[in-house]
Specification:
Elements (H helix, E strand, L loop, with lengths): L2 H27 L5 H30 L12 H18 L4 H19 L6 H10 L8
Helix pairs in contact: 1-2, 1-4, 2-4
């Protein structure tokens, strides 16, 4: 299995684990009986997952496409991070939902990254399935 395939499998596993944590946090936020907190968690988690997918797409285009690497694609990170800053600023200023809930939602993906870094890995049968099916969802062959 090459580096690109291992990276793709790891990133997809982080996304799945992040989605699981995100769902648990969103359901758990209902305990506070505050629509503002629940909306904050839901929007924050969705924002984190979307941001992670966008970052992965940029990295794949820049480095992991063996036939056509495009390092200049990394310049897309500048508007991406400016967009992140703008979204966080708007969320903080407008008060449409609870800012703490928003940041808790964004931490759902951080929790998944920490767990994978600590050694949580997908089962071997998932690895074999993705390797044999030639899953190219993220653009890697």
């Amino acid at each position: 299995m090459n580096l690109a395939t291992k990276a793709k499998i790891t990133v997809l596993f982080i996304e799945k684990l992040g989605l699981l944590i995100y769902t648990a946090l969103a359901v758990g936020s209902l305990w506070y009986v505050s629509l503002s907190v629940t909306l904050g968690v839901i929007v924050g988690g969705a924002f984190a997952l979307l941001n992670f997918r966008l970052l992965w797409t940029i990295v794949v285009r820049a480095f992991l496409d063996p036939e056509n690497p495009r390092p200049l694609t990394l310049f897309l990170l500048v508007p991406k991070f400016l967009g992140i800053t703008l979204v966080v600023f708007v969320v903080a200023k407008c008060g449409w939902f609870n800012i703490v809930g928003f940041f808790v939602g964004t931490l759902s993906l951080f929790g998944a990254i920490v767990l994978v870094g600590a050694g949580v890995r997908p089962k071997d049968d998932e690895l074999d399935e993705q390797e044999t099916t030639g899953d190219t969802e993220s653009g890697i062959k």
